[in-house]
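Supplementary material to the annual report.
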Amino acid sequence: MAALLEVRDASKRFGGVVANKNISLSVPAAGIVGLIGPNGSGKTTLFKSIVGYHPIDSGSITFEGREVSHLRVAQIARLGVIRTFQQTRIYGKMTFMQNMQISVPHRHEGLRSMFSKFSREVQEQAESLLEFVGLRSKCFLPAGELSFGQQKLLELAMAMMNRPKMLLLDEPTAGINPTLINDLIARLKRANADFGITLLVIEHNLRVIMNLVQHVYCLAHGELLADGPPEAIQNDQSVINAYLGAR
Amino acid sequence: MTKPFRQPAIYAGIGVIVLVAPWVAPSIVTQMAFLWLMVVFALTWDIMGGQMGYNSFGNILFFGVGAYVCAVVQRDSGLRYSSALALGAALAATAATVVAAILGPAVLALRGHYFAIATLGLGIAAADIAAGWHYIGAASGIVTPLFPGAIGDRGRFFYYLLFLVAAFAFSTLRWLYRTRFGLAINAIRDDEEKAEAMGIHTTRYKTAAWCISALFLGLAGAVAGNLAGFIDPHEFAFAGSSYGVWMILMAILGGRGTLWGPVIGAMVFHVTQELFWTYLLGWQRVAMGLFILLVVVFFPTGIVGWFQQSWSRRLGCAAGGLTPDVPSGQTGD
Amino acid sequence: MGNLTLLFHQPVLNLQLLIDGILVGAIFAFVAYGMALVWGVMNIINVAQGEFVVLGGYVVFFLAQAGVYPLLAVPAAAILIAIVAWGLYRAVIFRVVDKDPFNSILATFGLSILIQQLANQLFGSDVRTVESGVGSLLLAGGMVTISGIKLVAFIGTLVLGLVLVLVLQKSRLGQAIRATAQNARAARILGVDADRVYAATFAINGAICGAAGGLVAMTWIIHPYLGLTYTIRSFMIVIAAGLGNLAGVVFAGTGLGVAENYAGFVMGAEYQAAFVFSLLVVILVGRNLRLLRKREYLK
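Predicted assembly:
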């Protein structure tokens, strides 16, 4: 399967600290890939480089065959690469529906579309996506006043509303009640299977990784330590050492 | 969020009062005309500060540009009064919008405090530059042409004209806030980085918002300049420490980020100010300063904001609960 | 613009402008340091900074009128304005310390308007100055005049600045302040009372502004509407230097003083303020655009 996202020898340093050194990874279209590693391994830096949050020092990042490492966050988002945030970010003072509506794709934004109203279609789509993630009812409270778990689901629904080609999820199960994690994994798998969305997931929770992804990349100390299918990684001695030995 | 049945009645009621007011209270028609100017000030500031979260301390810049452009057109065009005024007003709105479009991308790239202080600098620099530019009268300013009509008519004419500008601004914003633009600027306010991460063209929307503010401010400047009769760079056109600050205060007093908030805030503020001027003469500015301080510190959500908070609490979440349930037939592996 | 050519024909004029710029720049830097202190510790941009300076100036003015030797009145101004600042913190400022930053800007802006109008009402809008009775130095064969009082003010500022830095470095209060600036929560856990630290910081800033204001009244003029320019200058210097960069503040302050003097000379005094404000916008936009290239922005 052709690679949708291809990172080649990406390196990034902050001052004297080398956060990423010559990292290469590849995410196949419609695939689900996991990115793991102990704290400080450089996963977040790599993640941020891919979404365009900061430039990389050297190497290349291509999406659908096209170089994106020089593009800004919004430009990359418009190409179909949407991310979620670890702390879960939504538009706090707007309602659920408004959060969803403004999350439609903004690929071509001319004067006419900027000042147009949202169609009934958009509303229906929003409602069905909200239902898909398990947020059943309409609510007029500002989204910021709802629980963390609900906000997380809203964020996922918003991401899907954007009809992304690829979703980058930053610790999607962090802070979620363990009993609901299976639920979330199921939904993510459905998003991938039914909507064809490619997933790249950073995760600390190894159970999630085992259940969700098809291929795992493990980072440690800023470098790629190992990669392979989940079962292989689970038993890889260097990976185990990295996690156990991490201070 | 207004209950649908309220709307026609409210607007009709206001319409009647507005139309009749100059005849009922002719002695204060000029003050009432200025009320509409205050409404425009508050509404245009609120687009930036309340709806979009970009607290501009320099919106007065566009008001001054509008006032001067119109006055210069009236002085130099050689047209009759009404044509000159119409042309001047149109050019004023255009010029102000162009200024916003040019400055927008660079200045709106600043965020938070930096944007606030940069716009403050812009407003003040404009006043000093205008005060030194001889073509527009330097420190002496420009006198706008004499109104060609009876004395009594002048006040009423500008009252209705300013009301039209205010009504135009209000109805435009009412429509705008229901479009994609309205939600986009709210998203920028709530979390600009998130908005960028979702692909929103933030620069485009921010600049558009400033241009819309500028358009109405420029228009208001043109008309108000004629009402005042005389455009002074520091005290009128680029009056940062009076109009410039009041804009912000009125929107906050009434309720930032709401449609009616700035309108109500403008009315309460204007009436309060007139009362201070009448009864606290000499100390009215001190009282105003104290009023500003108290509103900002103790009343930051404003009148409408306070109402909305209690409303949404009562409305709460519609029946059905909001707990994420496991969709039937979907179990994790 | 004829003045510009004058600078080339009479090079010694440059020396005059440079020296005057450095002398006044020290005071700018001092006031800016106070603003940086409040900003760094309390995350508040004190838009009333200039007004505190003006108040300090009035204290010295009135004390001088009452017969007090002006230089002695400066410490009195420092103490008085420190008390006023402390009082304002307890009454108003504490409510906006940990909240939405815009509220603090607006609150201090409201405060600045209040103080400005009070000053106008109580002291009148006339321009005041304090005669210090100190003569002038003549250099370069009479071509360069260094006003004695400006030199005194300069030295005074250096001394006060040194004292301030020592207090912040060595004293317990200073350590508490620096700890709170770095991490308020951690400091609190270690027993530092954040509220007291904030009050003390705000008061110290008041003292700085009071002293600076007194020096300004002696070396130039004081009037109720002078405040905003000092606030803007402080803000510019802090932005240019970055928070916590003392050397940067000194350099930026001096640079601003010199730049202003040149602008006033070349473009005329009425444009000096416009120059300051325009420069502010240019610096802000410029720095931000440069950061944007690295996909960052001024925070």
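The mean pLDDT of chain C is 87.
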